[in-house]
């Protein structure tokens, strides 16, 4: 049974090796604000919490294990993305990618613990809805056009309305990922790249969740002592929908076949 079309992504929790260093990066480079901090944990967001950090001193990057490929922060519009790009250029913030996916435009980075980050803006939904598999691709981003939208103001951080648009996972097997998130959780499959990657969503969005095996086919989950994805959240419209979906997947806090921890909660 399909998940509610109003399902959306919620808080993403990551372990980090040095909380002060992570907070400095996510504030200064990414533009989120610290909303709370206590006992080695902190939550950041634009207006509501989007990411939570849990400090594990000395944790090493979790390369080669299943877990997070990137957390994707969706800004409200193209000028907001242009403003972020202008900030990155002005401050010489290292980027790992600049991509036009046709359904969206995206800027990619990695934080000091090697956690992948995407900051992106959607293209108008009428341009791609129902055609994600045919239209979604990766071509060079038109940075000149994007920067022209930025305006002349100083970057004041990611704007209100920024949210976790999707979570992209490193998984061990694509078919079992589709089986869990599609057949059991009830997300719809929007694009499928054979045994390499799959993209799934609620309500016809291009993707709320993706999984790829590009570097992790058959891999084990990231162990303690690594800077890793601890859990991510899917927010459902009410407690009744949480109970229904939880019955399908075996609880409100479960692990997918690759060991990634998922939490279901009500809005």
Describe this structure as you would to a colleague.
With 267 residues, the chain is of the alpha/beta class. It has a single domain, classed as 2,3-Dihydroxybiphenyl 1,2-Dioxygenase, domain 1, CATH 3.10.180.10. Helix content is 21%, strand content 37%. The protein contains six helices and 18 strands. A hairpin with a 3-residue loop joins strand 3 (41-45) and strand 4 (49-55). The radius of gyration is 18 Å and the shape is globular. The mean pLDDT is 97.
Topology:
Blueprint: E1 8-16, H1 19-30, E2 33-38, E3 41-45, E4 49-55, E5 60-61, E6 67-74, H2 78-90, E7 97-100, E8 104-110, E9 116-122, H3 132-135, E10 139-140, H4 143-148, E11 163-170, H5 174-184, E12 188-193, E13 197-201, E14 209-212, E15 226-227, E16 229-236, H6 239-249, E17 253-255, E18 261-266
Parallel strand pairs: 1-4, 5-15, 6-9, 11-14, 16-18
Antiparallel strand pairs: 1-16, 2-3, 3-4, 6-11, 7-8, 7-10, 8-9, 12-13, 13-14, 17-18
CATH class designation: Alpha Beta
For the largest sheet, list the strands in their spatial order: 10-7-8-9-6-11-14-13-12
Spell out the helices and strands N to C: EHEEEEEHEEEHEHEHEEEEEHEE
Number of helices, counting only DSSP H or I runs of 4 residues or more: 6
Beta-strand residue fraction: 35-45%
Count of the separate structural domains:
1
The CATH homologous superfamily: 2,3-Dihydroxybiphenyl 1,2-Dioxygenase, domain 1
Got a strand count?
A: 18
Named at the architecture level, the CATH assignment is: Roll
Helix content: 10-25%
Poorly predicted runs are none
